[in-house]
Design goal:
The complex is a heterotrimer of chains A (about 325), B (about 475) and C (about 280). By secondary structure, chain A is mostly helical. Chain A has 13 helices and 2 strands, in the order H-H-E-E-H-H-H-H-H-H-H-H-H-H-H. Chain A has a two-stranded antiparallel sheet with strand order 1-2. Chain B has a domain of about 160 residues: D-Maltodextrin-Binding Protein, domain 2, CATH 3.40.190. In chain B, helix 11 crosses helix 12 and helix 11 crosses helix 20. Chain B contains 22 helices and 11 strands. Chain C folds into 2 domains: about 55 residues, no CATH class; about 210 residues, Orthogonal Bundle (MetI-like fold). Chain C starts with 9 loop residues before the first helix and ends in an 11-residue tail after the last helix. The chains are: A mainly alpha (about 325), B alpha+beta (about 475), C mainly alpha (about 280). At the A-C interface, helix 1, helix 2, helix 5, helix 6 and helix 8 of A face helix 1, helix 4, helix 5, helix 6 and helix 7 of C.
Chain lengths: ~325, ~475, ~280
Amino acid sequence: MQAGLPNPVPIRRCNVKACPSLRGGQAWPKKARMTAALRPDRNFKYWLLAPAIFLLLLVGLFPLIYSLIVSFMRIDMMDVDTSFAGLYNYANLFEDKRLWQSLGHTLLITAIALPLELVLGLAMAYLFLEKMPGRQIFIALLVLPTIISPIVAGATWRLLFDNRYGPINQILGWIWGEPVTALWTINPYLVYPALLICEVWQWTPFMFLILLAALSNVDKSQTEAAELDGAGFFRTFRRIVLPAIWPVMAIAILIRGLDLFRMFDIVWALTKGGPGTMTETISVYAYNQGFKQFETSYTAAIAFLVVFLLTVVVTWAIRRMGLAK
Amino acid sequence: MVTRRDIGRMGFAAGFAGLFARPAWAQAAAETAVAAAQQYRGQTINIVWEAGLQSLDPKNFSGPKWKELTGIDVNVVEVPVAEMFTKIMQEYRAGTGAYDALNVIPAWMPDLVNAGALEVLDPYVEKFGFADELQMIAPTYRDNQMMVDGKIYGFPDDGDVFVLYYRKDILGDPALQAAYKEKFGTDLPVPPTTWADFDQLGQFITETMGGKPFGAAFFREPGYGNFMFQERFRVEGGRFFDADTMRATINSDAGVKVFADWVAENKWAPPGVEQWGFVENLAAFLQGETAMTISWPPYGRWAAGYGTDEEVMSWVPKSTIAGKVGYALTPGGHPQLAAGFALSVASSSKNKEAAYLFIQWLNSESVSMERVQLPYALRDPFRTSHFTSPEYLSKWPDAKDYLAALQAGADSGLLDLSLLQTDKYEEVLRQSVSRLWAGEDPKAILDDAASQWDTITDKIGVEEQKAVYASWAAKSGAYPKM
Amino acid sequence: MSGLPFHRRKSTRLAVRYAIAGLLVVIFCFPIYWLFIISFKTPEEIFAFPPVWYPESIQFDNYKVLFKDGDAVSVLNSLILASSSTLIAMVLGTIAAYSLVRFKTGGENLAVWIISQRMMPPVAIVFPVFLLYVFFGWVDTYFGLILLYTAFALPYVIWMMRGYIEDIPLELEESALVDGCTRWEVLWKVVFPMARSGLFATAVFTFVFSWNEFLFALVLTRTEVMTYTVQVTHYFGGQSNFWAKIAAMSVLGTIPVFIAVATMQRYLVRGISMGAVKG
């Protein structure tokens, strides 16, 4: 194997000639080599997984079963009716306009915020890829928004957006030339921008850091060679960099997408789902139903609907993204 | 022979003795509690209390004092008020017995009682002779925030009521009064007693003074707007439901009027007031930016500078208007007894009697008197004796007007709506308020709200809700006597 | 280098990079700055019109109060919970990820099941988890929350490390094996070092997720274990808002993580060629 220059794309076939441990040009059949190494540790792969799976089951199994059972009952604040109610709750799901509206809101936010965060994060990662003095401080500072508790972030943005006591309208006023009255958390046209600003602000650093780590693993010699060959930035990116960082990037998109779907704190702090139910995401709706109004059974049904929808999306996404090779 | 004079003398003596018997009797409840609690020495009671400022009462004052007197540890479980109901229900449903005593917002009582989470207190009240002192709680709180279905489930412990605060110096300014008289032909109302007067005055002040100060501001945020709507709606003659059909009638003319008036008010209130919560409104008033506002009792104490030197009160902006504040009933004369707290015992507690004795002691005449006077207290006067206490009256020069306003409010106040699953109804109101600020048409919003209320009622069960509503509406504080 | 056109000169590029970096910091850190100075402002300055951009005096009273009242303990609690759960989750999760990637254990279904744990809206399972914890007696304990946060972190760690491990070429491991390393040694000596930047990036956010978790911390604790997120919500009252405490507490809560991220930078960006690893 050439020193220092690994092939950035994982390959399944072993290039026999490149193995340094081959002495004298003997070529071992790949299968024999691997089997020889594998044999004593056939259960190795299970041991690796076991602790993690155990923990997940310990904490996750009972709630899952409980929720499933409860979703077939009629438990709410007023009585605990544990008789089997069939698909009562699930049937109600389909007639619940507010539920589907909240899913729509959630999808809207996800569809806008995710690409924004991705592109911004990627751009920022590129900015800091090469060495520069003080880079450490810059990166640490830029990660700060993600570290602040979302509850506090939401409350801070509330104050920032306040018409009288917040600086944002003040700054806008300076730019505009006259005092600006913008009710960010109330005006129907401003609430979504406000939410998105807050969300992108808080989570772009997430994409940034992850993509920075991935980009820094990309084989520099390949990109430099391409550059010398005259390839432009985008071509290099598409042909060399993107395939290299794709596994990480795809997963980051997946994770961020899932988390956006569950977005709660920012919405709660800024608008509480208002005005009316205009910015109510599915988490806010579920919170009101399950936490405040104790519609235990109905909330369980909502939860399973969400899990079902997300599983479908994720399975499709995994296939499309080639993550399950 | 016993003459009339003798009887007169006896009566006089009895009355005289009665005067002295009163304080002795008043001591009894607190002392009885302490004495009876000795047998529980060494135990710990867990009490749920609103997190933050409210909790300083049991943490710094009443808890340590109780421990000193009875040897019982008080473990204060602080919970943000938004999550209190949930945590209480969850612990109850899980049967953990983790909580012994509770702070409960009276509007929650029907739901909690229905679920079985609260302990009936009548047997304990009888056993420890608390009935008399309970009677001495101001009538509105006593008659409305203590019982569900005729049984006692909590002791009202906080005199939350809305008060109109106004700047005596501004409203009393001769030049302003003259200009008002010239413009409208009537005297400037100090303070305004109807909403029409209030709105007219508020707009006048903003226009004349050029926004320095504004006529008035309020906490317009939906969470608070919910309370203000409930008050003003009823004062304008509205009723929540048709008692016979149990159909919602919040979209009546009264409701639409309230919403329309609010939108008109916002025009002369500070821009952006629709987003204001408790603290923004407080800051604006204390810093002299508004001439009138409506809020809970603490504004009055803090405006006078009482208690704001305490370290824990350092978050309150310094009052620039001490001595200039007048107190009055809210326009319409029937302020909302918004929120409030009652002390209860959890039904799944393992130390019910010990918990009960603690809350009896807390709520007793002598101890509650001290508690409402704590400089950092958020507990407002709620016993008749609080309103007339010489000690309280001497706290700051205008304290007598303050207490008078609170007492008047307690006499004529309106209860929060309290039904089964009240939060669902209130959520609709909150959303309606936020939709109003977003610019929707008041009638459309309220029609939609009414139909949502009907859906909720249908789901809960019309007959059940009707019964609960009937018993709520029968209370003296449910609707103003017009 | 000076012969190159202006836009290709290294010094220009560096200057431009600094300018953009500076702009980014201003944009992203302005709200943080605002929160930070609130911890020094008087209430009149917090609610001043027009807004005050710089406080009159810098005094640390608000911070002192937090320590005096014992509120700062919540930061320590969160530190303990987040660090422990991150450490355990990183170890268990990375080796699990390795198993998934190299051996395709459980195939696609297992991988999807693992990530599905992150799909469940927390609100729906908070009560059954509470019941479970009541049963085991884990409510209001450090152990209980560490266990929970580790379990929450695992799907994230496993999936993220999957990506980073896939980036490691197979030959490195194969050659190590052939050279006589045991499987465990391969993990320790080849995989972990190679995935360093990925480990770091994942660890940072695993920590952050545990750090910021609110709902379960609220429901599963009473008085013994107060996390910083729950403590902060105590300052938002119905009739009070301790903005100075909120800000000071948030600053306190941010400092440890900030320092950790700043000091462990070198693991994030690898400038070293992979040939340095024993082949």
